[in-house]
Amino acid sequence: MATAAVATFGFLHPPMRKPAISPLYILPLPTQPHSKTHPRPLPLPRRRRGGPIAAFPNATSPSTNASASPTYDVREAEAAVAELLREGGASPADAAAIAARAPAYAAMLADGVRELDELGLWDSWSSGAGARLSLSGAIEMEMGRLGFRRKMYLMGRSRRDHGVVPLLESLGVRLSSAKLIAPYVAAAGLTVLIDRVKFLKEMLFSSSDYAILIGRNAKRMMTHLSIPADDALQSTLSFFEKMEARYGGVSMLGHGDVSFPYLIESFPMLLLCSEDNHLKLLVDFLEHIGIPKPKIASVLLLYPPIIFSDVENDIKPRIREWEKVGIEQGYIGRMLLKYPWILSTSVIENYSQMLLFFNRKKISSTVLGIAVKSWPHILGCSSKRMNSILELFHDLGISKKMVVPVITSSPQLLLRKPDQFMQNVLFFREMGVDKKTTGKILCRSPEIFASNVDNTLKKKIDFLINFGVSKDHLPRIIRKYPELLLLDINHTLLPRMNYLLEVGLSKKDLCSMIFRFSPLLGYSIELVMKPKLEFLLRTMKKPLKAVVEYPRYFSYSLEGKIKPRFWVLQSRNIDCTLTEMFAKNDELFAEEYLGLGGLLEKPLQSSIGDGKPLSQCLVLRRIAKHWVLRILLHSRFKKKLQRCGFQLGTGRRTPHTFV
């Protein structure tokens, strides 16, 4: 018990000397060592709930005389505890609710009463512990003749915990821990503590919308921490490890009924934080720096030492430290929401080491700033781990210049362990992709190397093979469009495949299209596939087989390229395949269809069919816009461009009426 007391109440130790940046005020020190130094944390004992009050085996009928009827009624036990709570200032409703949720406390009192009954030691108790009761100077009557409920009440009063122990047990705190915590918080008064508990629960667990995200972030923060932890961070890790020792682990952090008892056991001085003078001011400040009120609980649960911190003396100076190294104030709130540990002295000091490391690697500190803003979890990563990943980048042929966009777009790669990163490299090697191409894929889609091989990448490959895509075609498909591995199967790939099948394509056709044009499945149904297919079938009167032969058709802009070229060719009564229509660039298309072959010597019509504007002029204006430096030097185009209403040298079209 003494060991547990020291472990739970580290604040009894002498204070440590403050570092250069004043540490967050944490009274209880960690109860468990950090898992980075102790990979196997000690298991915590399972919480024990008190069962029914024990009864004598020879019980007969209830009576107010305990010696005549030794059966202990659970209801009477709860009533005695409720009476103690009401005497401490609790309302009748609160007293009844707390007493009903404190069976272990009632059992403890009942055990004491039963032991004194069995041994006949009430007289000794009256002159000892009972003498402290001072009931009008004397006990009302001989203790042995009192009823069970009265004895329970007097036994509870003799403990002088003022109802705090049953209050803590009603929150889910173990009775042994509650008895240790009570002496340090009882001075606040029972009514104050009851109101404070309600306020804390409302502040931390009023919304369950973010409970899953809180749990995921806690797991991620624990997993990727590879720097020494200061006292505040160590106590947080110990709290998380307590949660990990129970069913559900830290994923239950956002669920108050589960995590609140552990929070009180790890940080009992929470119960001494004034609502008006401290907690409300803290909430207002966090809102002021840009954290939405519903998400404030996430910050506080992921780093409880913030709750004890003084806004002016602790939190603001740390924020200024980040501003000094170039993190704008507008980003502080976002970073704090993603990674509350940025207020830890360990993390602040590690950023200085990261700056030195990037300087040695001749990578701009601006790159690190961008990476930290988007993925602040890397602040808990040691330079040694980051160096091992950068060495693997270099092995794939990624130069220092090429590594910059990789880090800025996917800074989470710096948190990968070398063996995890190599699993992704081996995945491409097994597919037949060489090292140089793997490096190119890393530069183009670094997010792929942050994905899990078994749960993400291999599932996509197996899905494509099962659909009918040839295994021999996969290396080419992935080389051409590696982003395919990032598309969700159920929400992206399947709906788009099903749409193409529904319009009349066969599985064989679709597999052929994917092989010919890998990005096909990356296009939205509503924004790309559907409008372009409708124009192809209804307006262009092309067969569906046309897109099988030329699936790249979906890559062209409907308004910027498909329609203008179609109107020009239709106006000239030219029928051609999709390949002939779109494979040429604007300059070659103009040479073949807009004049050099004599096509524009024929009379021009003012409109075509259903009233579409003269598209030759649209094409010419588009050519002039995108190829102006080339075409304006070509004297044969000048008059034609001017005739279409394009002012050379100004980039503006003049009003012009076509006849």
Automatic annotation (TrEMBL):
The keyword Transcription applies. GO terms for biological process: DNA-templated transcription termination. InterPro entries: MTERF, MTERF_sf. Residues 31-71 are annotated as: Disordered. GO terms for molecular function: nucleic acid binding. Keywords: Transcription, Transcription regulation, Transcription termination, Transit peptide. It comes from the Eukaryota. Residues 35-50 have a biased composition (Basic residues). Residues 57-71 have a biased composition (Low complexity). Belongs to the mTERF family. PANTHER family: CGI-12 PROTEIN-RELATED, TRANSCRIPTION TERMINATION FACTOR MTERF9, CHLOROPLASTIC. This is Uncharacterized protein. It comes from Miscanthus lutarioriparius.
